[in-house]
Write a structure and sequence with these properties.
The complex is a heterodimer of chains A (147) and B (662). By secondary structure, chain A is of the alpha/beta class. Chain A contains four helices and four strands, in the order βαβαβαβα. In chain A, α3 links the parallel β3 and β4. The model of chain A has no long low-confidence stretch (mean pLDDT 91). Chain B is an alpha/beta fold. In chain B, α2 crosses α3, α6 packs across α7 and α12 packs parallel to α13. The longest helix of chain B has 19 residues. Classes of the chains: A alpha/beta (147), B alpha/beta (662). The interface between A and B is large, with 54 and 53 residues.
Chain lengths: 147, 662
């Protein structure tokens, strides 16, 4: 894992997890002791469709280096169609962010079910690794917010 | 300004071993609005809750944050504690510093830092919480059971015995399920039909139970306590009230070439058929795909011979709409397809069979009338080989990663029954492990080895090759003696893995019940809520939740019934108050939100409003909080930012983002 090489750079990573699948998947990763870097901080939302693109822009504005959105697998959404909305919105947002210079690797959508603790942990490890390879995010950050 | 209390739990050493709890308390106390911060060994204990109670009262707290385990574990506990202390239960937030922190990080400094950040995010959120009130919804006192196997039957009987109406929807023409296909059951060697059929009769005769056979669930809407379900009653082409079940139509039907599903395709059946002799209801079905009358328009023999005049060729599918308070899924299992396992020659030789096929061969009502014989030449076998774990415990993508649980025991049963009835047949079993956890299971397996002389070989079979003389050459390995084995067999029986019924995915989607990667339905909590789905009002019975044998299935069926009864016994349910709310002054009535709402909870009204002193009539969205489930799709779709979700408002989530990125 990537803890040693992070002495100089500790990324800030926000993970939005839906309450029904991915948050439970993260809980399962926890109870199964499947580690991932402490840089990932999870925000619980009822459904992936609750994530407003504004939240993601806000995270980058406040200095986040990566944002990942996790929801139920297509077809398995607790609210039937929420993850489809999220998928469409994020496709649009991520391509716009890429245009603005926030590389595609800094944003990700992943489907993690309540039974996929292993997938949650590997996804987070991969994502943090990717953010390390991209380095600090310099776009969109509002420098007035930095402390 | 809020007055916030922060309570940090040690959870014994679960949290305290990797998170410096005192440091979290110290840092949390510095946050704006925090007027109280303390730690305790077990916050969820009575003493811990008493601390919360005391702090709320003494310090006059308006919101609390508990840094502890996942909110999925104890959110309700702490909400109730807050409520008892006179605080609105929705003024409570949980910072998950166990599952999302202490359990996955090893470095204390890192974990503590993260715990502080998670606590800050929760504090930032709770500062913006508003008191919410739960609404009420009514409960329809009627249950639906999907699937009429032993799990569904037992659940229905238990619910009906408690005095509630139950409907069973079964896809095939008869209830009974997999258990009706079995010959004997382990470890008692009871006759399966003898113990199942009385239950079937009891269910069909019960005044509170209504059975829809040859029917499928088509559409589910609504929510816990108030589901509306469309059931498709497929056209049976036989009038159920007129039919006497005499069976003449099946005898006289000239089209008898359809593979018999009940006998796993080992023989054929007529186009008009009942699946088995004890079928309930004892009313045949015309299989329109194979019936000459439906294919060519010429025939009509069954209608001619039917004394009761029950044959109705012009019957149409019928959709019945019913309301239910609770739904139990009992869709059961099937054996996996063996196309991927060509090395066992299942598709090449009729004498390579699955254990379920052997079950039918051993059954007196089966294709061979209970005589053990080869399907190819009807000769009695001399050597039989059983191969375990075909598709179970499979590391590659071909099979299933899980253990199918029942195969070790039913193979011991088969081996024992064969050696008992045909002592001159040699029985060899190739196994990876023999797993016998269960009451009297290991004793049963040892009897097969010691008393009945079944030859167990630890090792896998690499190939089964059909020989020109009709024999099957089995190539395997004996791991204990470390040698290759080549043996000839007359029959090979594959203990094929079991998997959830293929329709379960469709049903799970309709019910919005979660499903795992193997298509088993997920339980609300793997240990503490094993028969409930995470979707309120949906319960799980039998193998649809995971591999089980019959006693376990019956036990789980009873447990699911109790949970359903507990729900039906209530007159009113409290609803989730975290619903969407539209701001009258911001909404422009564009109807974007109504278009994305999966529950039809948003309607539009015209109302006179006072906008900064100007009174005018406006058209705006209104959320029916009884229908809204709180997904939040509308909040993002709203172009004017008028729609927000209570409990997860834009400001609250942004506050969390800010706290994390600070």
């Amino acid at each position: 894992m990537s803890i040693e090489k992070t002495n100089e750079f500790r990324p800030k990573i926000v993970a939005f997890c839906c309450n029904w699948c991915s948050y439970a998947g993260a809980d399962l990763a926890g109870s199964s002791r499947l580690g991932y870097p402490a840089d990932v901080k999870i925000i619980r939302v009822p459904c992936s469709c609750r994530v407003n693109p504004m939240f993601i822009l806000r995270a980058f504005e406040k200095g986040a280096d990566g944002v990942i959105l996790c929801g139920c697998h297509p077809g398995d959404c607790h609210y039937t169609t929420g993850n489809y909305y999220a998928r469409r919105r994020m496709t649009l947002l991520f391509s716009m962010l890429d245009y603005l210079g926030v590389e595609n690797g800094r944003t990700r959508v992943e489907w993690v079910s309540a039974a996929e603790g292993v997938k949650f942990s590997t996804t987070m490890n991969e994502f943090v690794e990717k953010i390390h390879s991209l380095g600090k995010n310099v776009r969109l950050e509002d420098l007035r917010c930095r402390n | 300004m809020q007055r916030i209390g922060v309570f940090v739990c040690h959870c014994g050493s679960n949290i305290a071993a990797t998170v410096d709890v005192k440091k979290v308390v110290e840092m949390a106390a510095l946050e704006p609005g925090v007027v109280h911060a303390e730690d305790y060994q077990y916050m969820c204990s009575e003493a811990g809750q008493a601390k919360i109670d005391a702090a709320i009262k003494e310090k006059n707290l308006t919101g609390i944050v508990v840094c502890s385990c996942s909110p999925r574990m104890h959110e309700t506990t702490f909400r109730n504690a807050a409520k008892r202390a006179g605080l609105n239960p929705y003024m409570v937030e949980i910072a998950n510093i166990r599952e999302h922190c202490s359990w996955i990080h090893k470095n204390m400094e890192e974990a503590t830092k993260k715990a502080v950040i998670l606590a800050r995010a929760a504090i930032a959120k709770v500062s913006l919480n508003t008191p919410l009130q739960q609404g009420e919804s009514r409960v329809t006192k009627r249950a639906l059971v999907i699937g009429g196997g032993i799990a569904g039957i037992q659940t229905a009987l238990d619910i009906a015995e408690a005095g509630y109406e139950v409907d069973i929807v079964e896809k095939t023409p008869s209830i009974g399920g997999r258990m009706s296909q079995l010959d004997k059951t382990f470890p008692t060697l009871d006759c399966s039909a003898c113990i199942l059929t009385p239950k079937m009769v009891e269910a069909s005769a019960h005044e509170k139970i209504n059975i829809y056979t040859y029917s499928e669930v088509e559409k589910v809407s609504g929510f816990v306590g108030d589901f509306t379900v469309d059931i498709r009653k497929k056209a049976r082409s036989v009038n159920m009230d007129k039919c006497t079940g005499c069976g003449v139509c099946q005898e006289k039907c000239p089209s008898k070439k359809t593979p018999n599903e009940f006998n796993r395709g080992l023989n054929t059946r007529s186009a008009i058929y009942t699946p088995f002799a004890q079928a309930i209801p004892n009313v045949p079905v015309i299989d329109r795909e194979h019936c000459t009358k439906f294919k060519t328009g010429k025939c009509g023999v069954c209608a001619k011979v039917c004394q009761a005049g029950a044959i109705e060729y012009d019957q149409q599918d019928e959709i019945v709409t019913e309301k239910y308070g609770a739904i139990v899924v009992a869709t059961g299992f099937d054996v996996i397809k063996l196309d991927q396992y060509d090395e066992y020659a299942y598709s090449q030789s009729p004498d390579v069979i699955t254990s379920l096929e052997l079950e039918r061969i051993m059954n007196a009502a089966g294709p061979t009338k209970g005589h053990l014989e080869r399907i190819s030449d009807h000769k009695a076998p001399k050597n039989m080989v059983f191969i375990q774990c075909v598709g179970s415990r499979c590391a590659d993508k071909r099979g299933k990663s899980y253990c199918s649980k029942i195969c070790c025991m039913y193979t011991a049963k088969h081996a024992m029954l064969i050696r008992d009835k045909y002592p001159d047949v040699n029985v060899t079993v190739f196994y990876i492990d023999v797993r016998t956890p269960g009451k009297n299971f290991d004793e049963f397996y040892r009897r097969a080895v010691e008393e009945y002389g079944v030859n167990y070989i630890k090792g896998q079979v690499g190939k089964v090759a059909p020989q020109p003389n009709g024999q099957l050459l089995v190539q395997g390995v004996d791991l204990i003696d470390n040698k290759q084995i080549l043996m000839e067999a007359d029959m090979v029986v594959l203990a094929a893995a079991i998997e959830p019924n293929k329709d379960v995915r469709k049903i799970a989607t309709m019910l919005t019940a979660s499903i795992d990667t193997n298509n088993f339905l997920t339980e609300a909590h793997p240990k503490l809520r094993p028969v409930e789905s995470p979707t309120a009002g949906v319960f799980l019975s039998g193998v649809c939740q995971g591999p089980k044998d019959i006693p376990e299935t019956v036990a789980q069926a009873g447990a699911a019934a109790v949970k359903a009864i507990g729900l039906l016994a209530k007159d009113k349910l409290l609803t989730n108050p975290c619903t969407a709310k539209s701001d009258e002054l911001l909404c422009n009535g564009c109807s974007t939100c109504a278009n994305v709402c999966p529950y039809g909870a948003i309607s539009y009204i015209d109302k006179e409003v006072n906008d900064h002193g100007i009174r005018e009539t406006r058209h705006f969205a209104q959320v029916n909080s009884a229908l809204c489930q709180g997904c939040g799709a509308c909040t993002v779709a709203c172009p004017s930012g008028a729609m927000d979700l209570q409990g997860f408002s834009n400001r609250q989530i942004i506050a969390e983002v800010d706290a994390i990125c600070r």
